[in-house]
């Protein structure tokens, strides 16, 4: 499980059939203090996260396989939820 922030979205014209209609969020991992760690990755997004939102991501591929209905999907990272703002973030 990873703590991350959505920094954008990816687009692809050619992809695996199981990924048809899947929104791909570009995420940056976060440190314990909430700062970006520089590690950027794509994650399937069925939650509707927006740019700048903090999310938690699973990396095991099971959620993507269940959601797409394909055990052969190349997706591994899936956004499981959007985090509420912390008191520190609201103060900024």
Automatic annotation (TrEMBL):
Record PANTHER family: ETHANOLAMINE UTILIZATION PROTEIN, ETHANOLAMINE UTILIZATION PROTEIN EUTN
One matching Pfam family: EutN_CcmL
InterPro entries: EutN_CcmL, EutN_CcmL_sf
UniProt keyword list: Bacterial microcompartment
Annotated GO CC locations: bacterial microcompartment
Subcellular location, record wording: Bacterial microcompartment
Protein's name according to its UniProt entry: EutN/CcmL family microcompartment protein
């Amino acid at each position: 499980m990873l703590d991350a922030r959505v920094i954008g979205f990816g687009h692809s014209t050619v992809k695996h059939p199981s990924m048809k209609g899947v929104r791909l969020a570009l995420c940056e991992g976060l440190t314990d203090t909430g700062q970006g760690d520089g590690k950027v990755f794509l994650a399937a997004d069925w939650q509707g996260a927006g740019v700048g939102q903090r999310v938690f991501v699973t990396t095991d591929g099971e959620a993507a396989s269940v959601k797409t209905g394909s055990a052969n999907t190349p997706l591994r990272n899936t956004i499981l939820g959007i985090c509420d703002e912390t008191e520190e973030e609201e103060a900024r």
